[in-house]
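Schema walk-through. Below, the input block comes first and the output block second. Nothing else is stored per chain. Lengths vary across the set, and this one has 273 residues.
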Amino acid sequence: MTPHGFMPAPAESKTIFFDDFGLGRLDRSKWNVRTTGKVVNDEQQAYVDSPQTVYITSKVPGAGKNVLVLHPRSRPGFTTADGQRFDFVSGRIDTKGKFQFAYGSAAARMKLPAGPGCWPAFWLMGDGSWPENGEIDVMECVGEEDWISCALHGPGYFGQSALVNKLFFPNGQDATCWHIYSVDWAPDRIVFKVDGATIYRVTRPMVHFFGSWVFDDKKYLILNVALGGVYPFKTNGMRSPYYGIAKETVNKVRNNQAKVYVDWVRVQGHTSV
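--- output ---
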């Protein structure tokens, strides 16, 4: 491990994507900022392209010079361009059309907020229709700070029946600390890691038991923070004040205390666009 949590690249690979947010602003040659159209998973937020929800800051303890912040906000009655109404807004960025790769290692160093129903994620997805495009969830957290999860979604194993596993942090650690969330992706297996330690390994035969392996095409990177929805609800059972969101989390969002920090994002591999 090197300063600020960098892990050395395997000797046979090269860095094909890297962002430590050194520009002091989001580099839009690398990232798209997405806005809400179709809503999935019964999520309770709208994604907006705003410096209030996606921005770069500095002087975050334990991080490098600059850090990406994805910041959910309370905006009662916010209306999207297509007329949908939400009480919260948040941030979602991806590299679709700007950087996509097949096989390699994708990693992000992140610090997450606590609060049931706050749902940050770091994931990969291919072009085309879901779930046939293959989704690799490197890290998801639904606001219970003692664990994170990782998953694969594809035809025959998607939604709440995905190939999924959880890591429960050891005493003295949790998701509100800095961690490196990564995936090693090969033609015959996908290995999920936290701080370099394997937490789940999915082989091609494991996938074929349920359906087709859809992880040979190029994928793009996604970082986002949702609020509420099916996955948090399945964990916390909250229907009020919002589906899948606890009152304490609503208060944290209203008090600007539900920020996700990203120190850096890196991909090592051989093939990219």
